[in-house]
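TICKET: design request
STATUS: open
ATTACHED STRUCTURE:
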């Protein structure tokens, strides 16, 4: 029985390079040529290893969430108070979104901002991830009410939407060249909207 030729490239490293390209350019502008050049492979190898550009993008987004974007879920899960969780999340966003080691902003927010009909499915995928993140924040806020950190009548959905809007704005500001210090100031201002118990 003959076996196929082994892959001559590191799939994980190639996926990381694809992630960086999608993060920098977005889904549609990241052409197969740009992707394969960054990944150091031929188009045929991309299709053999990842299926197609659409599936490669989904895999890159999953990798982003498990690595670069994992700090938000960690903040919500690890901090003992709802306020501490949101404040840590916003402060870590300020540092992460401006880290010069990778493209600025958030891939999940900016990966498909401007797209044609062919990329509507990509935008829907990213929107669903953002909505899940907003729901996780709202749930953490409801826990804050249960723990009597927040007033019983606090509008957790409105507060979660406010926080999501701040996060989207921080991502765009980072892409426009805002510094970590500038975004930390935004985070501090956002926390002033925290309802008092």
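STATUS: resolved
RESOLUTION: sequence designed for all positions
ATTACHED SEQUENCE:
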């Amino acid at each position: 029985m003959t076996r196929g030729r082994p892959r001559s490239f590191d799939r994980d490293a190639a996926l990381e390079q694809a992630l960086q390209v999608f993060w920098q350019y977005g889904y549609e502008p990241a052409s197969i040529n740009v992707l394969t050049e960054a990944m150091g492979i031929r188009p045929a190898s991309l299709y053999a290893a990842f299926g197609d550009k659409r599936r490669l993008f989904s895999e890159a987004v999953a990798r982003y969430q498990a690595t670069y974007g994992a700090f938000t879920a960690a903040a919500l899960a690890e901090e003992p108070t709802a306020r501490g969780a949101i404040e840590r999340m916003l402060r870590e966003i300020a540092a992460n979104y401006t880290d010069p080691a990778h493209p600025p902003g958030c891939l999940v927010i900016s990966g498909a901002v401007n797209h044609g009909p062919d990329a509507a499915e990509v935008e829907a995928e990213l929107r669903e991830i953002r909505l899940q993140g907003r729901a996780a924040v709202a749930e953490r806020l409801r826990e804050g009410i249960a723990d009597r950190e927040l007033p019983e009548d606090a509008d957790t959905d409105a507060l979660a939407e406010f926080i999501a809007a701040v996060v989207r704005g921080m991502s765009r500001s980072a892409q426009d060249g805002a510094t970590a210090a500038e975004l930390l100031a935004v985070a501090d201002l956002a926390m002033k909207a925290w309802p008092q118990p």
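CLOSING REMARK: The CA atoms of residues 138 and 157 lie 6 Å apart. The mean pLDDT is 92.
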